[in-house]
Design brief:
Blueprint lengths: L5 H7 L1 E2 L4 E2 L14 H5 L8 E8 L4 E5 L4 E6 L4 E5 L2 E5 L3 E5 L5 E5 L7 E8 L1 H12 L10 E4 L9 H13 L4 H24 L5 H12 L7 H7 L4 H11 L4 H17 L5 H7 L5 H12 L3 H7 L1
Antiparallel strand pairs: 1-2, 3-10, 4-9, 5-8, 5-10, 6-7, 6-9, 8-11
């Protein structure tokens, strides 16, 4: 991950109030990747928050490392994969990724990209995270100590990248009391992220849950995994897990199993062979289906058929 000093950043990126202008490629000979030891020693340039602009060349990778601050990444362009906490986060243009303090993470950039991957990074102190958690996030069930991914392209929050741009601009220009301005922008951005999260998981916008449930119905006979579904809907696995626990009161995998077994009951009544029933609802073999059915309903599939 390339991290410039404030002076280097100012010479490499000129950002106006109306339009960003980011260099498509770093200057020749100036793209050395800092070591994990260097990355872990990075410190904020202000008490609460600052911003920086980062690039990585196609095919580039950054070794696992962590920070003493919380990092919120905004993808100016897509093609970067972050790995942390056992999950992979594939960033598309306009995505927001939260990297908590102290969490070990690495990244890699697709070799197929025609130009460097670009992103803004808003860096927040633990003190600031504690403040905004109590004010804006705890009541939403959003734990800022866990990574999460938000997709903004094509939504009402497409404008959110401008907050990141302004934080970077203020940090680079260092006008009088720039720290206070960045604090204010970061606070407002936190509210926008909370609204974006509420928009994805709120009572009035159940589209994500509905789309995932419809996906399960269509693919019930196939293998359904949380990582695959998360990638399909451009959200993190933790987002889906929290969504199902919050809205349904059960885990994602529990929901899938219940849907398989409920559909199995309907198929059993039609008289088709039991082994075909198990395959039709996505169980790999009859013995697994048998155990799950009996554990859920207290009787075997054959006993259920006799009763109906």
């Amino acid at each position: 991950m390339k991290k410039h000093s404030l002076q280097e950043q100012a010479s490499k990126v000129q950002i106006s109030e109306q339009q960003e202008s980011v260099p498509s490629r770093p200057a020749a000979g100036e793209h050395a990747i800092p070591s994990p030891a260097v990355l872990q020693k990075l410190e904020l340039s202000a008490r609460f928050a600052d911003g920086c602009y980062e690039t990585n060349l196609p095919g580039e990778a950054v070794s696992p490392h962590s920070h003493s601050f919380h990092e919120v990444v905004y993808a100016i362009s897509g093609g970067t994969d972050f790995q942390m906490a056992g999950e992979r986060y594939h960033l598309l243009q306009g995505d927001i990724l939260s990297v908590p303090t102290g969490v070990i993470h690495s990244l890699s950039v697709s070799e197929a990209l025609p130009e460097p991957a670009r992103r803004y990074s808003l860096r927040l102190s633990p003190e600031f995270i504690q403040l905004i958690s109590s004010l804006f996030f705890n009541d939403l069930g959003l734990d800022l100590e866990q990574p999460f991914l938000l997709h903004t392209t094509g939504t009402a929050w497409e404008h959110i990248g401008d907050y990141f741009r302004r934080c970077v601009q203020e940090t680079e220009q260092r006008h009088f009391r720039w720290e206070a301005v960045v604090f204010g922008i970061a606070t407002e951005l936190s509210v926008q992220i909370a609204r974006c999260w509420q928009g994805n998981l709120g009572e009035d916008t159940p589209e994500l849950l509905d789309r995932i449930m419809s996906h399960v119905e269509v693919h019930l006979a196939e293998k359904i995994t949380l990582p695959d579904v998360a990638a399909r809907f451009w959200v993190s696995q933790s987002t889906i897990s929290q969504l199902f626990r919050r809205k349904m009161g059960i885990s994602f995998y529990r929901y899938v199993t219940l849907r398989r077994l409920t559909e199995a009951k309907a198929l059993i009544k039609t008289g088709i062979p039991m082994d075909q029933v198990s395959i039709a609802v996505g169980f790999q073999d009859y013995s697994t289906f048998y155990r799950a059915f009996k554990a859920e309903f207290g009787i075997s599939p054959a006993q259920y058929r006799k009763m109906h």
